[in-house]
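Is zinc ion placement plausible here? Inputs below.
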Amino acid sequence: MSSSKPSRRVQFDPALDDSSADDSSDDDAGPPRSSDPLDDGKGHYESWEDFWRRTSALNAKKAREAGGDPNSEPSAATPALGRHGRPLDRGVPEGPIRCFGCDAPCSTKWECCQCLEIFKRRSVDVPFDTWERAFWCGAACYRDKYAEHAKRHGPSAAPPTRLDGRSHAFEPAEGDGALWDSERLKRETVPDCPAMF
Ligand SMILES: [Zn+2]
Ligand SMILES: [Zn+2]
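Reply from A.M.:
I modeled the complex. Tokens:
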């Protein structure tokens, strides 16, 4: 009966706790408190290396699940990269802007309203986001590519960053397809681009 009872120095594990059995000590009701600052009450780490290995693996899993690269968590020093491998600064890739539809060089005059809305939402929670803002050469290209592009307006997730180990989930952007005219500061709904979410 007493053969496999764990030492009381072992950290508390509810599965092993057998408080109904005879227990000669009667002065320590409740789980023992760990003095280890790394012990969050859920994980039982045997060492700093164990803690590091297991939390790194957990963060990598969360990054992959949110569509990120576990080997390059975005931070101020290593910003997320856009479609063409260039660093993103507040969602805008460094260097020449290219149309999200046809990839031709373009200005930042026309931007997809839904993608911008999602960017704004995400930027509240994610300081170094992987979300790239979508600029377009014009309304005709947007309409041509809308069916494919609009899939991007669905629910999205942000992987953990170096500052924040959590991943975040975001709602889809609503409304008909539209372009934001950054020169006239005006939203232009594009015909034949119905809301998909
Ligand atoms: Zn285009
Ligand atoms: Zn968009």
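Short version: Residues 99, 101-102, 104, 136-137, 141 surround zinc ion (ligand 1) (CB under 6 Å).
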